[in-house]
Amino acid sequence: MSAVRVVLVDDHPIVRAGLRALFTGDQSVEIVADAASGEEAVDLAQRLHPDVVLCDLRLGEGMDGVRTTAALRALETPPAVVILTTFDRDAEILGAVEAGASGYLLKDAPTEQIAAAIRQAAEGRLVLSPELSERVGQAMRAPRVKLTERELDVLRLLETGASNRELAKELFVTEATVKTHLVHVFDKLGVDSRSRAIAVARERGIL
């Protein structure tokens, strides 16, 4: 069986070099190129037609891993995409899968698991650990929270530890208005405290 042709995408040169080294001697995986950005990855995929793109989620300036995945999957001959990252928030996993990713792995995964995921993705299979599969299922079943721009402003300021008075001053509104926004935010997130609002917002990728 011929080797799976792979393009690596990570904005850190040392990570790309490390991944290349991981697959040295693995006859089932051939690293054909590496890219430092999503835009470069899409260009390489158009020219080289790899079987799989192994992509980080956070890529610095420009497109992130989710947008890169969507762009790659929209190509005329789309490669499978496997996300390899340090981030495991439910919203990010779900976003990657919804964009068309065939797999989602954490960077501390064993080399054998990463290589197996690449081969499985090339075969058209979805590659998620049982734990991540369960979490994606739960996230897809959970209702999407829609906050207004002002409610998002309140939530971001809450994250800094600002008091109601400080929130009011920053947003140029009264403390009563701040309390009203907080009631709406708590209600939409299904929480009853500032700390839980911040925690749930982080879990869902709102913050």
Description:
The protein is α/β, with parallel strands linked by helices. It has two domains: 138 residues, Rossmann fold, CATH 3.40.50.2300; 56 residues, Winged helix-like DNA-binding domain superfamily/Winged helix DNA-binding domain (Arc Repressor Mutant, subunit A), CATH 1.10.10.10. The protein is built from ten helices and five strands, in the order βαβαβαβαβαααααα. The protein has a five-stranded parallel β-sheet with strand order 2-1-3-4-5, with helices on both faces. β4, α4 and β5 form a beta-alpha-beta unit. The chain is elongated, with a radius of gyration of 20 Å. The model has no long low-confidence stretch (mean pLDDT 88).
Uncertain regions: pLDDT < 50 for 5+ in a row? none
Provide the residue-averaged pLDDT.
88
Q: How do the SSEs run, as a string of H and E?
A: EHEHEHEHEHHHHHH
Helix content: 40-55%
CATH architecture of the largest domain: 3-Layer(aba) Sandwich
Number of strand segments: 5
Radius of gyration from CA coordinates? 20 Å
The coarse silhouette is elongated
CATH superfamily of the largest domain: Response regulator
Strand content: 5-15%
Number of domains: 2
Distance between the termini: 45 Å
What is the CATH class name of the largest domain? Alpha Beta
CATH topology of the largest domain: Rossmann fold
Number of helices in the DSSP assignment: 10
Summarize the topology:
Elements: E1 4-9, H1 13-22, E2 29-35, H2 38-48, E3 52-55, H3 65-73, E4 80-85, H4 90-99, E5 103-106, H5 111-122, H6 130-141, H7 149-159, H8 164-171, H9 175-189, H10 194-203
Parallel strand pairs: 1-2, 1-3, 3-4, 4-5
